[in-house]
Amino acid sequence: MSTGIEARTSAGNGSPDAANPADSVEAAAPAVSTDAEATTDTSATGSALSRREMLMIGATGAAAFATGAAAQEAGPDAPAVASGSVAGMPFRAYVRHGTEGTVEDLRLRDIKPTQVLVRTRGSCGCYTVTTSVLGDFPQPTPTIPNHSGMGTVEAVGAQVRRVRVGDRVLVSGTPWCGQCHQCLTGTPEWCNYLAPGGVPNDPIADMADGTGVIEASVIGGLSEIIVAYEEYCVPIFSDLPDEQIAMLGDTGAVGIAATSVYDPVQIGQNVVIFGAGPVGLAAVQGARAQAAGQIIVVEPVRYRRERAIGFGASTVLDPNEDTDTLVDRIRELCAPPTDRLDAGGQIAGRGLISMRGADLVVEASGLDRYPPAVETGPDPTGLLALRQAWEVTAPGGSLVTLAVQTGDIAFPGSAFCLSGKRIYGGQMAGMNVMRDTARFVTAMENGAVDIGAIITATPMLEDVRQAFQGVADRTELGVVITFPS
């Protein structure tokens, strides 16, 4: 198979995607080039549509523009655009269909003008995905699981500007369009491209019988090919190993962001982290990198507590041993060295609101989707840890919640309303992926954080079920599915 798609400005006619011709990359010249060298065709005349114009004329008009109804002029810095159809390209992917999950041979459909074709190099295994990989619940539409990945761009649609053919790229679990209400008002972690219906989740490939296959969260990841909308793609200009970059698509980046985005750790502040999985351990490293005072980790699994100490935790606590006294113990650990108020001290306080607690608390433990093969915590629903995390947050402190629980939870109304605790529901820990990914890459390059040390397994696609079983059992930490060149 070719290692690349010939790159030039598209200016031909028609599309082979009969189901939705307006959304396909123009097919002109050869379907797939066997020559990896990119060429640029500057013969087209006219001017490029702005993003605003594309939105105004809609998908059909924009696709017509891209395919020759209006020509695009290619300047010297114009991005590469696939000159031919990529339809029919063979690849393999782990597909959930019906009650089964197997590695399947698929045939690619054409990509849309705003999509990017990525040759996958790594895909991070998130605990929240375990049921979609290992479960036997009915999956009516064949689906490639997961929600992040990284690799090399092999083709781009005619409207793509952010990345180019040959770029190393992260396909993040959260998009950034820079134009929707959330992106413009400071909550880019909820970019509307993420919302159900934000972008179409159409089939990207076909099974042997012609059945269309979609990607979970319009990303997938457990596949040799990822077809992603431009807004999910972050170009990577670094020579860090593939598996480390893949961790920034989800768990590794989320942990670092929890300590540096919503309410960044200040020098000397006390930080408490519930859970020492890959997210929690990345949060430990993020807090250490920002010179936190104490880093207190709550984790029932012994080997994970030991890893937390190795990554910079000052104290580790087993919630099974301290279940009833955990909150009071953490509050005392966070007490200042004096209770003399006129010397900058603090008293504990009485009643509903304790004055003592941590400046930043990260809840990254969550529920047990599967019974762990290691030590279990005191509450498989995850609600106890969530309640404790809120209780040990100091008045005026911040709580970042990153995990998933099951069931409902109650808080004392007056304390909830009056204590001044800032609670951040941490979808991707508040990341602006275009801004923050580059910062985290720099922190990894200069050794401030070591995401590679969290990775404990790098299996290949054939071993995806075994790999995710290790994630479900909590016997593994960072798992990255890898793909040979």
| Strand tally | 18
- Ranges where pLDDT stays below 50 over 5 or more residues in a row are 1-83
Which outline best applies?
Answer: globular
Rg computed from alpha carbons, rounded to a whole number of angstroms: 24 Å
The secondary-structure element order is HEEEHEEEHEEEEHHEHEHEHEHEHEHEHE
Strand content: 15-25%
Helix content: 10-25%
Overall mean pLDDT score?
85
Structural class of the helices, strands and pairings?
alpha/beta
Distance between the termini: 11 Å
Q: Helical element count? A: 12
**Biggest sheet overview:** 7 strands, mixed
Description:
- Helix content is 23%, strand content 20%.
- With 485 residues, it is α/β, with parallel strands linked by helices.
- Strands 3, 5, 6, 9, 10, 17 and 18 form a 7-stranded mixed beta sheet that branches. A 6-stranded parallel beta sheet has the order 13-12-11-14-15-16, with helices on both faces. A 5-stranded mixed barrel has the order 1-2-7-8-4.
- It starts with 50 loop residues before the first helix and ends with a strand.
- The model is unreliable at 1-83 (pLDDT under 50).
Provide the fold topology.
Blueprint: H1 51-69, E1 90-98, E2 100-108, E3 115-124, H2 130-134, E4 139-144, E5 149-156, E6 168-171, H3 181-184, E7 205-206, E8 212-215, E9 225-229, E10 233-235, H4 242-247, H5 251-258, E11 271-274, H6 278-289, E12 295-298, H7 302-311, E13 315-317, H8 326-333, E14 358-363, H9 383-391, E15 393-401, H10 413-418, E16 422-425, H11 433-445, E17 455-457, H12 464-473, E18 478-482
Parallel strand pairs: 4-8, 11-12, 11-14, 12-13, 14-15, 15-16, 17-18
Antiparallel strand pairs: 1-2, 1-4, 2-7, 3-5, 3-9, 3-18, 5-6, 6-10, 7-8
